[in-house]
Specification:
Elements: E1 7-10, H1 12-16, E2 21-22, E3 33-40, E4 44-51, E5 53-54, H2 55-69, E6 75-77, H3 87-96, E7 107-113, H4 114-120, H5 129-143, E8 146-151, E9 154-159, E10 161-163, E11 172-177, H6 179-186, E12 194-197, H7 198-202, H8 207-215, E13 224-228, H9 229-236, H10 244-264, E14 268-271, E15 276-280
Parallel strand pairs: 2-5
Antiparallel strand pairs: 1-12, 3-4, 4-8, 6-7, 7-11, 8-9, 10-11, 13-15, 14-15
Helix pairs in contact: 2-5, 4-5, 8-9, 8-10, 9-10
């Protein structure tokens, strides 16, 4: 795997919004829809509406953003350069930005094969039609998600991402990232974004561990924090339990499976008491230019 594909730059909102991605476990995926509200930095409220996203969708998004993060792997689209865009791309761009007078706005356009995306995510059979159709379904669900921003009395709705052209299954895909994803990819030193180590992502298999790994990126690299087990459990399962037995089961799965997988990919987990652990995020071994320097958005623990 080339070094540039070791990282994905994501918006803190994507990582922190509780319940945006869920683990369905052994149960079948539901057709539920969500209307999830999340306030970031006390001044902007994001409302996510659309189908409930699962861990497979999260994994596909991480791989897709890793492709978009890699220099040279994407093209920039904006109303200002529409003459160099195809009609299909331009129509998709207008769906994201109906007000074409906003010349400064730019979005990320990625065109790739499902085989390449599967390789980024280390699927066992990257060329299998079953794998491709799984990733295709993930893209379609994410393209159905709308993000509404409420800030200073203003309201703006935008897709999470847009599929370009015919969205029927083919061997390759073309997508335009919505503003929430694009802003993080274009972010430079001093701006807020979270950098996910894709080697760590590829080293996980337990669904709750993937959710916990994503949520813990409020921690800077090399930092150690004391965190209550109850808080870590809420990161994975934000809804309250209905029975004491379910609470015990979640706590057991957290300690013996989710935290155990984090240890396998290099995170340090030290039990402090029956109610808390010390978590240490590993330092990156990859040196990146300043424009790619990790900028973690810090969040207070509840």
């Amino acid at each position: 795997m080339i070094p540039e594909l070791l990282f994905a730059k994501l918006s803190p909102v994507i990582c922190y919004a509780p319940g945006l991605f869920r683990s369905f476990g052994k149960t079948a995926r539901t057709e539920d829809t969500i209307e999830l509200r999340y306030t970031f930095n006390s001044d902007v409220t994001y409302v996510f509406t659309g189908p409930q996203l699962g861990v497979n969708d999260l994994l596909a998004l991480q791989g897709l953003v890793a492709l978009g993060t890699m220099p040279g792997s994407h093209r920039r689209l904006s109303p200002a350069i529409s003459s160099r865009s195809s009609k299909i791309e331009w129509n998709a761009l207008k769906a994201l930005y109906p007000d074409t007078k906003r010349k400064k706005d730019e979005l990320v356009f990625v065109k790739e094969t499902y085989t390449t995306l599967a390789k980024v995510l280390s699927y066992k059979d990257c060329t299998a039609g079953k794998t491709h159709k799984l990733l295709y379904s993930c893209l379609r669900r994410m393209a159905s998600v709308r993000v509404t921003l409420h800030s200073s009395g203003k309201k703006e709705t935008q897709p999470l991402l847009q599929i370009v052209g015919d969205d029927a299954y083919q061997s390759e895909f073309s997508v335009i990232f919505g503003p929430l994803l694009t802003t993080a990819i274009f972010a430079t030193k001093g701006e807020q974004y979270l950098r996910l180590n894709m080697d760590e992502v590829r080293g996980l298999s337990y669904e709750p561990a993937r959710l916990l790994h994503l949520r813990l990126h409020w921690m800077n690299q090399g930092a150690s924090k004391s965190i209550k087990l109850a808080t870590l459990s809420e990161y994975i399962w934000p809804e309250p339990t209905s029975t004491a037995s379910l609470t015990r089961l979640r706590r057991l799965n957290l300690k013996t499976k989710a935290l155990a997988e984090l240890k396998k990919i290099g995170w340090q987990i030290a039990l402090e008491s029956t109610e808390s652990v010390e978590v240490t995020r590993p330092m990156s071994s990859i040196s990146l230019p300043d424009s790619q320097t990790d900028q973690t958005a810090t969040e207070a623990l509840g």
